[in-house]
Amino acid sequence: MNDQPARWTEATVYPDMWLNPEDDPRNNEGPSPDGELATLREAITNYRLTLRLKCEGLDAEQLARRSVPPSTMSLLGLVRHLAEVERGWRNWISDEEPLPKLYGARDADFDGAVADQAVVDAAFADLAREQAAMDATLAGFPDLGVRAGRDKLAIREVMVHMIDEYARHSGHADLLRECVDGRVGQ
């Protein structure tokens, strides 16, 4: 008996896609954004949506499953980790006292990702709140060359780092989701 789930996708138009183009909230049929700022914002938005799509339809046990042993990584852990990432980058460009970590010590975002619906609900609420707070902070910097925070980081650099973090973890989410229930697609 094979414990591995069969590979599948909801897409019927392109078999390597997560959803059909008309159902994909990341699909923008219009022209690409004008300018660097709009392009970076769209990339962040689309990677955030990708994470949510990869988690959609799973229960608490599936979200918390560490599918690639010995890694402690899980989809729920990624949600918690990216909430920390949003907060962390906001701390870097703030002149205020840094906000404390959401989940405590190093790797607590992954280690505390347990199969409990209250933990799942809290993680998604944390992520939504931190994303909204980061968006509000970034809205105050329409010039990507402005340097902010104690280390005077360029806003452009922060946005690129956020894209990098989400892109890397979207790849992890692809593999984790496939291991959980076999669903594939970009």
UniProtKB/TrEMBL annotation:
<protein>
    <submittedName>
        <fullName>DinB family protein</fullName>
    </submittedName>
</protein>
<dbReference type="InterPro" id="IPR007061">
    <property type="entry name" value="MST-like"/>
</dbReference>
<dbReference type="InterPro" id="IPR034660">
    <property type="entry name" value="DinB/YfiT-like"/>
</dbReference>
<dbReference type="Pfam" id="PF04978">
    <property type="entry name" value="MST"/>
</dbReference>
<feature type="region of interest" description="Disordered">
    <location>
        <begin position="1"/>
        <end position="36"/>
    </location>
</feature>
